[in-house]
C-alpha cells in the first residue's frame, strides 16, 4: 500500500509527467557576489547586494545591465532543462534584470527568495490565486488598500473563495473568524489608510494554529528597511514597489518574499504561467531604488514624525494617526517591530468633508495625487479618491473607519519646515 501523499500548503496544480515538482531541486538559486556576515547591516546590503552573472567569472559589471532580450540561445537540446533552472531561455520566465532586483529585495527581507511583478496588485493577486482554490477561506482586514479590498470582496468570491473581513489588526477578531477551511490570514501594517499596526508575531502565531494555513502581510507602508515580517514568523511579505522601494514615482512594480520554499516555487510557477512579470526596464529602476532606500526611509521617518507632532497640536485637526506618536493605539507594538515609523501621516480635519477638500486643494508645495512613498510629498482625500465610490461603498468606508474628514499624507524628503509652512497656509483657508 502506498503512503498517503504529504499535505501541501500550495495547491497541487503545478505538475509534470513525473508528479509534483520538488522545490528543493527546481528552484532557481542565485549566488551573492559579496561575502556578507551575520553582522552586515541592512544599509550595506541595500547598497551592495548583487547576484553573480551567469557565465562571467573574470569580470562583472558594477551595475547589472538591462536584459532586453525576449529569448536566449542554447547550445544543445539536452541542456534545455538545465538552462530553464539555472540560466535563461525566455524573459517571461526569468531574466537577469528581474533576478537582480528580486535578489536585492530578498537580501533585505531575509527570505528564501523573492519574486517581482508588474505591479503591487499583481503581486497580491498572483500570490492569492496561486495559493487558493475553490472552497478555501480568507480572513482579511476591513481597512486595507482599496485594490486589495475590492479583490477580496468582488473577485475571490467568483472563484468560490470565501472572505471574512475583520477589524484591521485586531488579533482576537482574526481568532474568532477562523473556520475549518481557513487558508489565508491576510494583514497589512501599517494599515492603509488609517495606519493601524498589526502585531506581526501574534498574527503569525495565530496562523500557525491552523494546519496548512498561510500568513500574508502587505508591508508597503513600512518597507523592508523599517520592518521585516518574515523575521516575526509571517510566511509571506508583499510590497508595492511602486511606493517606497522604487521611491521616485517612475515605476509600477510589486514583490513577494517568503521564508517557505514550497510557496516560493508554487507562486513562481503561477507567475510564469500567467505572465505577470516585471519589465526589465522597470526592474533596472527598481534595483536603483533599493540602493538608496535606507537613506530615504530615514528622512521620510524624520519628516513624518515632525509633521505628525505639528498636526497633533493644531486646533483644526481633531485626530492624528502616526505609529511614532505615543497617542497611537498600537504605539508600543510599533516600537517593538519597527526600526522607524515611516513617512505616512493620516489625520482628521475637524470640520469634515468640505474642510478636508479645501485643505488638499489649497496646498502649494505638496502635490494632490494618489500613490505614496516617493521623494516628493503627496496628499489625498481617501473618501473621494483612493477609497471612494469607485472601489468602496460608504458602508465599506464606515466599517474601515474612513471618515469624510480623513486626509492621507505621504511625507516626502523635502525640508520639513517648508512642508509645515505649506500645511499652515492651507489650514488657514479651512
UniProtKB/TrEMBL annotation:
<protein>
    <recommendedName>
        <fullName>cystathionine gamma-lyase</fullName>
        <ecNumber>4.4.1.1</ecNumber>
    </recommendedName>
</protein>
<feature type="region of interest" description="Disordered">
    <location>
        <begin position="1"/>
        <end position="40"/>
    </location>
</feature>
<dbReference type="InterPro" id="IPR015421">
    <property type="entry name" value="PyrdxlP-dep_Trfase_major"/>
</dbReference>
<comment type="similarity">
    <text>Belongs to the trans-sulfuration enzymes family.</text>
</comment>
<dbReference type="GO" id="GO:0016846">
    <property type="term" value="F:carbon-sulfur lyase activity"/>
</dbReference>
<dbReference type="InterPro" id="IPR000277">
    <property type="entry name" value="Cys/Met-Metab_PyrdxlP-dep_enz"/>
</dbReference>
<keyword id="KW-0663">Pyridoxal phosphate</keyword>
<dbReference type="GO" id="GO:0005737">
    <property type="term" value="C:cytoplasm"/>
</dbReference>
<feature type="compositionally biased region" description="Basic and acidic residues">
    <location>
        <begin position="19"/>
        <end position="38"/>
    </location>
</feature>
<dbReference type="InterPro" id="IPR015424">
    <property type="entry name" value="PyrdxlP-dep_Trfase"/>
</dbReference>
<dbReference type="InterPro" id="IPR015422">
    <property type="entry name" value="PyrdxlP-dep_Trfase_small"/>
</dbReference>
<comment type="pathway">
    <text>Amino-acid biosynthesis; L-cysteine biosynthesis; L-cysteine from L-homocysteine and L-serine: step 2/2.</text>
</comment>
<dbReference type="GO" id="GO:0019346">
    <property type="term" value="P:transsulfuration"/>
</dbReference>
<feature type="modified residue" description="N6-(pyridoxal phosphate)lysine">
    <location>
        <position position="243"/>
    </location>
</feature>
<dbReference type="GO" id="GO:0030170">
    <property type="term" value="F:pyridoxal phosphate binding"/>
</dbReference>
<dbReference type="Pfam" id="PF01053">
    <property type="entry name" value="Cys_Met_Meta_PP"/>
</dbReference>
<dbReference type="InterPro" id="IPR054542">
    <property type="entry name" value="Cys_met_metab_PP"/>
</dbReference>
<keyword id="KW-0456">Lyase</keyword>
Amino acid at each position: 500500500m502506498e503512503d498517503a501523499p504529504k499535505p501541501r500548503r500550495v495547491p497541487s496544480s503545478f505538475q509534470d509527467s513525473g508528479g509534483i515538482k520538488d522545490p528543493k531541486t527546481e528552484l532557481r538559486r542565485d549566488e551573492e557576489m559579496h561575502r556578507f556576515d551575520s553582522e552586515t547591516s541592512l544599509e550595506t546590503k541595500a547598497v551592495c547586494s548583487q547576484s553573480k552573472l551567469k557565465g562571467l567569472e573574470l569580470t562583472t559589471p558594477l551595475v547589472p545591465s538591462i536584459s532586453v532580450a525576449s529569448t536566449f540561445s542554447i547550445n544543445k537540446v539536452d541542456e534545455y532543462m538545465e538552462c530553464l533552472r539555472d540560466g535563461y531561455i525566455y524573459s517571461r520566465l526569468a531574466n537577469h534584470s528581474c533576478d537582480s532586483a528580486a535578489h536585492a529585495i530578498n537580501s533585505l527581507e531575509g527570505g528564501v527568495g523573492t519574486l517581482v511583478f508588474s505591479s503591487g496588485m499583481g503581486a497580491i493577486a498572483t500570490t492569492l490565486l496561486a495559493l487558493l482554490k475553490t472552497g478555501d477561506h480568507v480572513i482579511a482586514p476591513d481597512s486595507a488598500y482599496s485594490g486589495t479590498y475590492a479583490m477580496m470582496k468582488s473577485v475571490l468570491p467568483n472563484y468560490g473563495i470565501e472572505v471574512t473581513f475583520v477589524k484591521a489588526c485586531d488579533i482576537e477578531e482574526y481568532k474568532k473568524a477562523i473556520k475549518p477551511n481557513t487558508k489565508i490570514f491576510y494583514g497589512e501594517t501599517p494599515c492603509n489608510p488609517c495606519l493601524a499596526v498589526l502585531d506581526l508575531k501574534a498574527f503569525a502565531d495565530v496562523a500557525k494554529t491552523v494546519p496548512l494555513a498561510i500568513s500574508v502581510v502587505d508591508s508597503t507602508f513600512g518597507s523592508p528597511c523599517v520592518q521585516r515580517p518574515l523575521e516575526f514568523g509571517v510566511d509571506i511579505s508583499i510590497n508595492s514597489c511602486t511606493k517606497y522601494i522604487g521611491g521616485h514615482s517612475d515605476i509600477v512594480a510589486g514583490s513577494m518574499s517568503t521564508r517557505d520554499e514550497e510557496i516560493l516555487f508554487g507562486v513562481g510557477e503561477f507567475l510564469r504561467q500567467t505572465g505577470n512579470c516585471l519589465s526589465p526596464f522597470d526592474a533596472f529602476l527598481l534595483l536603483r531604488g533599493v540602493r538608496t532606500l535606507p537613506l530615504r526611509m530615514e528622512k521620510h521617518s524624520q519628516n513624518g514624525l515632525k509633521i505628525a507632532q505639528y498636526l497633533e497640536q493644531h486646533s483644526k485637526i481633531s485626530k492624528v494617526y502616526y505609529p511614532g506618536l505615543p497617542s497611537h493605539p498600537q504605539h508600543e507594538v510599533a516600537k517593538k517591530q519597527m526600526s522607524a515609523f515611516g513617512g505616512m501621516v493620516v489625520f482628521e480635519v475637524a470640520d469634515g468633508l468640505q474642510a478636508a477638500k479645501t485643505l488638499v486643494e489649497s496646498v502649494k508645495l505638496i502635490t494632490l495625487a494618489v500613490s505614496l512613498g516617493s521623494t516628493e510629498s503627496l496628499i489625498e482625500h481617501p473618501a473621494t479618491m483612493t477609497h471612494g465610490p469607485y472601489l468602496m461603498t460608504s458602508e465599506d468606508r464606515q466599517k474601515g473607519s474612513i471618515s469624510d474628514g480623513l486626509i492621507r499624507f505621504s511625507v516626502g524628503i523635502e525640508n520639513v519646515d517648508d512642508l509645515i509652512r505649506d500645511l499652515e497656509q492651507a489650514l488657514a483657508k479651512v
